[in-house]
Every structure is written in C-alpha cells, then in structure tokens.
Amino acid sequence: MGKITNKTYEELLDREQTLKRFGLPDKKIVLINLGRSGETCTIARRLLQILNETDVNKQYLRVMVMDPYLDPKALDALRHDSIADNVQFLPFIVDLVHLVRHSHLVISRAGYNIVNEILLTGARAILIPESHGSGEQEYRVQKIKREDFFVVMEDAVFHDGIENLIGKVLGSTSSPVPFKFNCPGGPAQALSRK
Fold first, then answer.
1. For 78-105, what is each residue's pLDDT tens digit?
2. What CA–CA distance (Å, rounded) separates 62 from 53?
3. What are phi and psi of 155, to 5 degrees?
4. Percent share of the chain, pLDDT over 90
5. Is the pLDDT of residue 186 over 60?
6. Averaged pLDDT of the chain
C-alpha cells in the first residue's frame, strides 16, 4: 500500500521552523486549501467574507494555498479584492503537512493527501468535498469519525450557519490528537484511537 503521507509525525518541523520555512509571522493560523476544481475562487471569496465578518483576521493569520492550475484571472481578482486584505497567499506546497500541523483550523477539500495529512497531524478541519461524478470525496468524508472534523457540502458554504461552525471550531479548547499511522501497536491499535 505504501506511505499514507509523505512524512511521519516524527519528521514534521516544529512551529518555529515551519513559520520560518513559509515566511509567516507568529500568529494562530487558519489555513485554506481548496484545490482547483469547481467554484474554488467563489468558495474562497465566501470563506474570506465570513472570516472578515467574524473578525478572525484580527486574531488569526489567514493563509490560502493556491493551486497552480487555477484560472490566473480569477486568482488575480481574488488577490486584489479588499476581502483578501492581509491574507497570505502561498503557491502549491509539496510539504503542506508541516503547515497543517501548526494550523488552528484547516478549511480544505477532502482529497486523499490532505485528509491523511489532517489525520496525521490531528488538525481541526472543516472539509468541503468537491462535487463531481465519482463521489470520491463525499464517500471519504462519510468514513471519517472524529470530533474535530466537520463536513460542509459546497452549496452549504453559501447558506447561513457556516459562520457558527467556524466560530465553534476556532473557539474549541480541545487539544488536537495526531493519528500516528506508524504506531508501534500496528494498524489495529491506530484505528481504535478515539
């Protein structure tokens, strides 16, 4: 089956090294990683609007990873929109897992790699599965049972209520628990983790 993530938990950089590597200031991080499919920029704009309305930008550094295959004009318009003031835009990052580990909240699609990176690090996450014919991402999120994982379908991003969910996740005082895929007790012990 091979590796589930490209790093083990023990290989992940500490917070200081991670912030230095990505050139980020020392603030709590909300990481947004929406990939390239579907209405990525429209969803990103809505999320930034919500984060602005809830004053998240005062307490958290908003970091948005932009896929290299996004429409350049739409991405440029998003970057120059006042809604994106003080957002740190980063290009696609191979080892995003380091930043995932040190994010207070990850808002992401539900692709195989990012879900495994979120599981590995124990990050709190709001997952927005892509809507496409195979249903792969929707199926994946149905199988995840964790208290710090929340699923919001694409169309629900534009309805009332997601603001409350973001506030709930950011207000959580629970400590993230990493899911160490390489646990010494083997897969059965890892899967029994609560």
1. 999 999 999 999 988 888 999 999 999 9
2. 13
3. -65, -25
4. 39
5. no
6. 84
